[in-house]
């Protein structure tokens, strides 16, 4: 059974555990690096700060009692009609069971409840699993360039999904 938990900053140890696992397992997928969140970067107040973004929703997916995935919805600065999906990760053992589907649907519902009409995200062009997942959920390429890739070979793609039921 899949359960989605909404976290508060007090849940930072759980978020930390999953986020460090995500950055170690899928460094190709994220703008942040494991090194940035280890050592001096691995501090309680920093994790609490990450879980205290005003207006954001931070989720952990629990499959059969075990935390196996995460994602966040965050407001888009200067654009109240949009929200952004970030930090999406499902542990390898739990992939292919619809965990990401549940996370995306929950963030989309959160965004609709906030009054957003569009859900945005950024994905690296070579991340084929994530790209297929997002296409299945109705995200299309906006043509905008996202952040530059660390190897200088291009930029992240910015995808958008229109939200039904938005005001
Ligand atoms: C992308 C990701 C979140 C998908 O999670 P998931 O719960 O397995 O999602 P799905 O079950 O819908 O599978 C998505 C795709 O992964 C692939 N997949 C399915 N089962 C898989 C498995 N057991 N192992 C690896 N990949 C699998 C498939 O290609 C599937 O694409 P499809 O829709 O064409 O079948 C997950 O693979 C992941 O965390 N990847 C690393 C981090 C990442 O890329 N995050 C996104 C950053 S933008």
TrEMBL record:
<dbReference type="InterPro" id="IPR000182">
    <property type="entry name" value="GNAT_dom"/>
</dbReference>
<keyword id="KW-0808">Transferase</keyword>
<dbReference type="InterPro" id="IPR050832">
    <property type="entry name" value="Bact_Acetyltransf"/>
</dbReference>
<dbReference type="InterPro" id="IPR016181">
    <property type="entry name" value="Acyl_CoA_acyltransferase"/>
</dbReference>
<keyword id="KW-0012">Acyltransferase</keyword>
<protein>
    <submittedName>
        <fullName>GNAT family N-acetyltransferase</fullName>
    </submittedName>
</protein>
<dbReference type="Pfam" id="PF00583">
    <property type="entry name" value="Acetyltransf_1"/>
</dbReference>
<dbReference type="GO" id="GO:0016747">
    <property type="term" value="F:acyltransferase activity, transferring groups other than amino-acyl groups"/>
</dbReference>
<feature type="domain" description="N-acetyltransferase">
    <location>
        <begin position="2"/>
        <end position="164"/>
    </location>
</feature>
């Amino acid at each position: 059974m899949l359960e989605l938990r909404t976290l508060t900053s007090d849940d930072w140890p759980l978020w930390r555990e999953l986020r460090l696992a995500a950055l170690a397992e899928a460094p190709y997928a994220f703008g942040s690096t494991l090194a940035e969140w280890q050592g001096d970067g691995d501090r309680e107040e920093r994790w609490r700060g990450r879980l205290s973004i005003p207006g954001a929703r931070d989720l952990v997916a629990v499959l059969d009692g075990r935390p196996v995935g995460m994602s966040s919805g965050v407001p888009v600065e200067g654009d109240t009609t949009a929200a952004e999906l970030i930090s999406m990760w499902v542990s390898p053992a739990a992939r292919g069971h619809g965990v990401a589907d549940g996370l995306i649907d929950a963030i989309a519902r959160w965004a609709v409840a906030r009054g957003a009409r569009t859900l945005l995200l950024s994905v690296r062009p070579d991340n084929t699993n994530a790209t297929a997942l997002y296409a299945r959920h109705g995200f299309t390429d906006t043509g905008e360039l996202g952040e530059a890739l660390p190897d200088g070979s291009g930029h992240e793609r910015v995808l958008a999904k229109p939200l039904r039921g938005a005001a």
